[in-house]
Amino acid sequence: MQWLLHGSVAPAAVETLRRYGHETHTAAEAELTAESPADQVLAEAGRRQWDICTDESALARAPYQGAMPFGRCIVLIQSADHADAIERLFARFKRLKAGRLYTITASGVKVRQLPARQLPVASGE
To answer: N or C: which end of the chain has fewer CB within 10 A?
Structure first.
């Protein structure tokens, strides 16, 4: 998997992702900044077919608030030890599924389906 690192993901978590064979990318590689709006972050990650690893809950909530559907997966770290959080994620889930939000807390990992893209409504003929 290829990951867009968003927010303040700890370097130890980045190393853990790499140890599991994943590639990581910074916001700067995607021509994003810390101030980039959530819809822009989601659009750019989706365009590049990157999943998102973040510690900012506002970005993880964005697809549910109508910012933009996201067809990849989002990992939200809400645990103080980011590296341990990534270890627990991959210990529980060998493969992550697209269209899911994985929230890692101090006590476990929660999975929630991301909103799907809505198909345009066909006009009556």
So the answer is: C
pTM of the model: 0.89
Give the ranges where the chain is alpha helix by DSSP (H): 11-19, 38-48, 57-61, 82-92
Cβ 30 vs Cβ 3: under 8 Å: no
* Angle, in degrees to the nearest 10, between helices 11-19 and 82-92: 30
pLDDT, block means (10 residues), the chain with 125 residues:
96 96 96 92 96 96 84 96 96 94 95 75 48
Query: For residue 101, what are the CA distances in angstroms to 31, 75, 92, 125?
Result: 24, 6, 14, 39
> Whole-angstrom Cα distance, residue 45 to residue 122?
29
- Paired tokens of 53: 């690893």
Contact (Cβ atoms closer than 8 angstroms) between residue 79 and residue 105 = yes
CA distances from 49 to 52, 69, 75, 91, 124 (A): 10, 14, 15, 24, 35
Domain with residues 2-113, CATH architecture: 3-Layer(aba) Sandwich (3.40)
